[in-house]
Each structure stands twice: as structure tokens, then as C-alpha cells.
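Entry:
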Amino acid sequence: MYFVLEEELFNMTTPKCDEKNKETFKGTLIFWLCQIMGELGVHCFISGKTLRGLLYLSMTVISCFTIPVAVSFVMFLGKRTYGLDLIAGIMILVVAVLVFIDAWTIANGRYANKVNGKKYRGGLWMKIVAILGLAFNLTYVFFGGDFFNISETISNELKTRVVTVLNAGVSDYLEKQGLFFDKEHQIGSFEQIGFASYFKYFEFIDLNAGLKISYKLHFECPNQSTWTITPSIVDGKLKWDVTEPEDKRCSENFPLNLNEK
């Protein structure tokens, strides 16, 4: 493998001795760099097109990393994303098209090294691979990558995590209270039942006779919204009543399920 790469790099910088190859480089390596790491601009850097490579690299980093992080932060604060996901989708689509243009240019023998002006030799198989690569990239962008719908994807994932944490905390509390009640015939404090009060996204507050849950995010429900769970004893059995937040978005987005407890 080392010797193959060494030969390719040599061919990219040193023209062949015969007349046919005096003004060209072998294009296999630069083509595969374009296909595999084109979005990072690697083939541009190798061929001396630094500014173009920086453009590809920056657009890829912004669309695939910076914008998703920004969308997550903005949604965490409960703010609108103002089409950031659409911008990311457009940017990654533009890069995919530009990479295809480069690959097609290489395949047709028209892609030149900016340092010495010599072109890379293409081939029919490169054209076929370039078309297949474009088809794959477009399919991924539109159907598999969610680049045009980052905010909805992150929203759904965050909703799932919040609901899971909320119900897991309540389930643990009710289970431990149930065991304590069966043994002591009374409701216990967090300390008495051995309940850990810290849960991600929520603050669990001990009411001694019950539980208060305060929401710590701004996402899909106002910050500091509260759920209150209070006990009652019916026919010697422990029952629980839930008071949900006034804002209906909280119960709609983060349903609390006591039926399974």
C-alpha cells in the first residue's frame, strides 16, 4: 500500500518520460481523494488549490458541526432556529455538487495542478464512479442526512430524552415510596426511602408527603414549570395524584405516565 501511494504521489508531481504523458499526471489518486474526502477539500489542497479547499472544508464544518451545535443551543434556550437547518442543508448540497464537478473534471482530464499547470489524466470508469457518487450524496442529503430538518430531528431526540428522564425519576420515586409504605405504613422523605433527588433536566423537590418536580430547561415548556405528585390512601392502598403545569405544552410534550408505576 505504501509503495502504491508513493508511486501515485510521484506521478502527481513528476511527468512521465514519454511524449504522451509529458504534460499530465496520473489521476487515480487525486480522483479517489476527491470521491472519499472531497467535502473536506483534500484533493484541492493536494493540487495546490488551497482557497477552494478551505471553502469546501469551512462549509462542511459549518453545516455538519457548527450549525447543529448552534441549533441545539438555541432550542435549549427555547428560541426559534430561524432556518438554520435549511442553511445547513443548502451548504452541504452545494459542497456535494462542487465535489462532483471536480470529480467530473478529473474524469475528463481537465483538472489541473495549480502549482505547475499540468493536468491529471482521467478515464471512463471515473465518470461512472463520479455519477454514482453524486447519486449517493444527493440521496443521503435529501433522505438520510436530515440536513434540511436538523431542528426537528434534534427536537424529537431531546423530547424523547426529557420524557425518559422525567418518567424514570418518577418511577424510581414511586417504587421506593411503595416499598417504604408497605414496610412502615407511612410516606417517607427522600432520605428515608433512599431516593436521589438530582435528575438531568429536572429538579426533584421533597415535600415529605409527596414530590414536586421543577423543569430546568426552556425547551417546549416554560422554565420552572412544576409537576406535583401527592399521595392518598384508599382502602389501605397507596394512590398518587398528579397536578400538571398550567402550560399545556408541558403535559403534551412531556407526558407523565403513572399507570405503569
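The longest strand covers residues 226-234.
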